[in-house]
Structures are given as structure tokens and as C-alpha cells.
Write a structure and sequence with these properties.
Elements lengths: L11 E4 L5 H12 L3 E6 L2 H8 L5 E4 L5 H10 L4 E6 L14 H23 L3 E10 L12 H21 L5 E7 L5 H14 L3 H10 L9 H11 L11 E4 L5
Parallel strand pairs: 1-2, 1-4, 2-3, 4-5, 5-6, 6-7
Helix pairs in contact: 1-8, 3-4, 4-5, 6-7
Bound molecules: NADP nicotinamide-adenine-dinucleotide phosphate.
Length: about 250
């Protein structure tokens, strides 16, 4: 008996933040699952290196730039299977921090407005039965001192995800959020470094304290986030929408 090819492998999956820790794992996993990829980031050189030897295409777009995002969307003409909103930034400063307003603008632009602008500009291109995945954070559920802008962006991203699930559901497009806690990437290590400096302790000591509070006593691997995205893009996940998937919990 002939084995039927999985649905939608001919259509493209866009991954933002493809150059980062989770993004790199995502591109590997989704390519291995047979998806055709379009990688987004800021450095075209890094993107080209990432896509070398694969069928992936790439675009350099600064996600703080509304005009550039709108131009990218206008130029996108082919059918799209999925949109993975993975790019994100973290700035740590208290409510009265000297650069807090700039940091709020930057964070909300990349983490929240860019997913909105891309979803808005590309939703007509997403095929019926397509997928959207947003990468929020555990800090989309709990607060942490100094993370006002980041938490605001990630809480709001979950809200938007649930609304888009309702809006696009009639076309059988699923929309889900993933909420990682600590994933072993440069972003997490930068975070841990800042926290250890604030507490006046060594990084190793701080990391040991962090992981001791996680259920699995270790950070999540980027490949494990990618595996959940892979599942949400699979035919088996066609009936799951509007959900927020927490990947191992840690205190705020
Ligand atoms: N690591 C964790 O522990 C953790 C936990 C919870 C949630 N998350 C979320 O997971 C996602 C990926 O995190 P990560 O750990 O892989 O972070 P990362 O290694 O720092 O990568 C961040 C990605 O976002 C892109 N990006 C940042 N600013 C951008 C901008 N202005 N325009 C376009 N792209 C931009 C970066 O591209 P460039 O190469 O151009 O800088 C990079 O590809 C983020 O949304 C993050 O908030 C991470």
C-alpha cells in the first residue's frame, strides 16, 4: 500500500528568530520533519550560513521596524503552512530604570507587535488547516522583579494567541502558545548572569539554585521546545488550538 505524504509539506513554514538558540533547534527539527522553511533574523550572513545545504530561504527583517515587516508581508505571495513567532528580546530594569521607556518600546515591538503585524499581514496566505505557534514564556504567567516589559509582552502574547485561535478557527487554523521556563540558550544564560550579579553570587551557584527548583532539575533543551513545535505542526495536532503549553515550571 502506498504511503501518503504528510499533509502540507509543500507549503512553507516561517520561523522568526531563526538565528537564536531555540530558533536554530527549530530549524533543524522542522527541516528533519520535512517542512520547507523560511528563516528570519537580522543578520543575512548568519541566516545564509544556517540555510546552507538546505532548501530553506531567508529574509533579514528587523522586527522593530513596522514598515519593514509590512513590506515583507506584501512581498510574500506563496501559500504558507505555518508561522512560528519565536524571536524575542529581554531587557531587565525596574519600573523607574533610566532607560525603561526605550526598553519597553523595544520589548513590546519585537515580542508582541511583530507577531501581530506578521499575523495580520500573512493570515490570508495561511492555508486552511495551517498553524501558528507563538513562543511566549513562563513569565507570561508569573511576574518577576525587573521584568515588567518582558512579562507584559509575554502575558499579552498568550492573550493574542487565544484570540487568534478563535478568529482563525473557522478555517481550521490552529494557534497555540508555548511557555518555556529556563531553556539552555544565550538568552537564558544572559538572564542568569544578570541575576547572579544582582545577588552578588557566582553564576554557577545561581544556576544550581535555579535548576534545583525545576521539576526535572535541569534546564529545558532547545530541542525539546522544537519537538513541541514539531508536534503542533503535525497532523496529529490538528484538533488542538488556543492552548498555552508550559514547559517545566520554575518560580518567577
Ligand atoms: N531561553 C529561555 O530560557 C527562554 C525562556 C522562555 C521564553 N523564551 C523565548 O524563546 C524565544 C527564543 O529565545 P532564545 O533563548 O532562543 O533567544 P536568543 O538566543 O537570544 O535568540 C533571540 C532571537 O530573536 C531574534 N531577534 C531579537 N531581536 C530582533 C529584532 N529586533 N528583529 C529580528 N529578530 C530579532 C534574534 O535575532 P538576531 O540574530 O538578529 O539577534 C534571535 O534569532 C524568545 O521569544 C524568548 O523570549 C526563551
Amino acid at each position: 500500500m502506498a504511503v501518503e505524504a504528510p499533509a502540507h509539506r509543500a507549503e512553507t513554514v516561517i520561523v522568526t528568530g531563526a538565528t537564536g538558540g531555540i530558533g536554530t533547534a527549530l530549524t533543524r527539527r522542522l527541516a528533519a520533519d520535512g517542512h520547507r522553511l523560511h528563516l528570519m533574523g537580522r543578520s543575512i550572513q548568519v541566516l545564509r550560513e544556517l540555510s546552507l545545504g538546505t532548501t530553506a530561504t531567508c529574509s533579514s527583517v528587523d522586527l522593530r521596524d513596522e514598515r519593514a515587516i509590512r513590506e515583507f508581508c506584501r512581498g510574500w505571495t506563496e501559500p504558507l503552512y505555518a508561522l512560528i513567532h519565536n524571536a524575542g528580546v529581554v531587557h531587565v530594569s525596574a519600573v523607574d530604570g533610566p532607560d525603561a521607556l526605550d526598553e519597553w518600546n523595544d520589548t513590546l515591538s519585537v515580542n508582541l507587535l511583530a507577531p501581530y503585524l506578521l499575523t495580520n499581514g500573512l493570515q490570508d496566505r495561511i492555508v486552511n488547516g495551517g498553524r501558528i505557534v507563538t513562543i511566549s514564556s513562563q513569565l507570561g504567567r508569573v511576574g518577576r522583579a525587573g521584568y515588567g516589559a518582558y512579562c507584559a509582552s509575554k502575558f499579552a502574547l498568550i492573550g493574542a494567541t487565544k484570540c487568534w485561535a478563535h478568529e482563525l478557527g473557522a478555517r481550521q487554523i490552529t494557534v497555540n502558545a508555548i511557555l518555556p521556563s529556563w531553556v539552555s540558550t544565550a538568552q537564558a544564560l544572559g538572564d542568569a548572569q544578570r541575576q547572579s550579579e544582582q545577588q552578588g553570587i557566582y553564576l554557577d551557584e545561581h544556576l544550581a539554585a535555579v535548576v534545583s527548583q525545576l521539576e526535572l532539575r535541569r534546564m529545558t533543551r532547545p530541542e525539546e521546545v522544537a519537538a513541541l513545535v514539531g508536534f503542533l505542526l503535525s497532523d496529529d495536532a490538528a484538533g488542538i488550538s488556543g492552548q498555552d503549553w508550559l514547559l517545566t515550571a520554575a518560580p518567577g
